[in-house]
Amino acid sequence: MGGREVCPPEWGMGRESIVQHDVPMVIQARPRTERASKCSRAASFGLAGVCGLLASCGQGVLDPHGPVGQAERIILSDATAIMLAVVGPVIALTLIFAWWFRAGNKRAKYRPDWEYSGRIEMIIWSIPALVILFLGGIAWISSHELDPPRPLSARPALEVEVIALDWRWLFIYPEHGIASLNRLAVPTGVPIHFKLTATSVMNSFFIPQLGSQIYCMPGMTTQLNLQADDAATYQGLSAQYSGDGFSDMRFTVEATSPEEFQQWIDRTRAQEGALNLSTFVRLAKPAHAGAPATYSRVDPELFQEVATGRLATRWSPEEAR
């Protein structure tokens, strides 16, 4: 037959019968392909989700660049590990109990009259007590070590006075007699001592990658110590809702080497523009965030005037619009 195979006549399978029997085999293979495709898409979405979560860790509290931020990340990691030590077994035991006491398991014993076990009670109450003990100890120790007014080291710190305006940030460098608006310049590796106040409403000063947030309140002064270890640009913001321009109340932190920081100070001093009481009154009026600005001369009593409430910086709702 020239190498061709021919089915015996008694099989009753002509060309049409072969085609009809082959088609269902192809159709049955399709569901596996579709399931594989769906699994592949699900895996792709899951991988994309994990990548998105990891990418969100950048420029936040999980990506610190200072001693305070690094200490706070350790606290978050330790607290999460302690809680997962309880949450993980609870989830696992829930699944195990549901599987073991299923209707089809004849080995599972049904005890309707059982009501008390001293050992189980001891385990149930001792584990939460240990969790509270560990979390409380971490909070107690870290609260004292990271107390905002506490100096970070014995080295001299850079003094920066911060005034939360509506809705901008004003930074005064009293040792250098200059100021900047919506831009904070700091040297790397140098402790920074902040004194903070506000004009009309309470705000929250926060640089996520450097560390703790602290409130700025009218008529009083709060203190905060931070440090930037790496030269980079960080983002600062207000973490307390304070009115119409709250969402734009952000500033940039330029951390540079001490030499470059000194050059910035010299350039700022060489510019025109003074920040006195009359200039500040105009600056303190409600306004949405604008371009950063610098001032080569600053009234040395300006921060004290604002912190003690001797300047009229409260506005009516109509003036604040």
What would you note in describing this structure?
The chain has 321 residues and is α+β, with helices and mostly antiparallel strands. Helix content is 40%, strand content 19%. It has 6 helices and 13 strands. The strands form 3 sheets. A 6-stranded mixed β-sheet has the order 8-5-1-2-3-12. Strands 4-10-9-6-7 form a 5-stranded mixed β-sheet. Helix 2 (67-100) runs antiparallel to helix 3 (118-145).
Shape: elongated
- CATH top level label of the largest domain: Mainly Beta
The first-to-last residue Cα distance is 97 Å
**Class by alpha and beta content:** alpha+beta
Number of helices, where a helix is a run of at least 4 consecutive DSSP H or I residues: 6
**Poorly predicted parts:** 1-30
- State Rg: 33 Å
Secondary structure: helix percent: 40-55%
Largest sheet: 6 strands, mixed
Mean pLDDT score:
82
Got a strand count?
A: 13
Quote the CATH topology of the largest domain.
Answer: Immunoglobulin-like
- Following the backbone from N to C, one meets helices and strands in this order, namely HHHEEEEEEEEEEHEHEEH
Q: What count of domains describes the coordinates?
A: 2
Largest sheet: spatial strand order: 8-5-1-2-3-12
Please report which band the strand proportion falls in: under 5%, 5-15%, 15-25%, 25-35%, 35-45% or over 45%.
15-25%
Spell out the CATH superfamily of the largest domain: Cupredoxins -  blue copper proteins
The CATH architecture term of the largest domain is: Sandwich
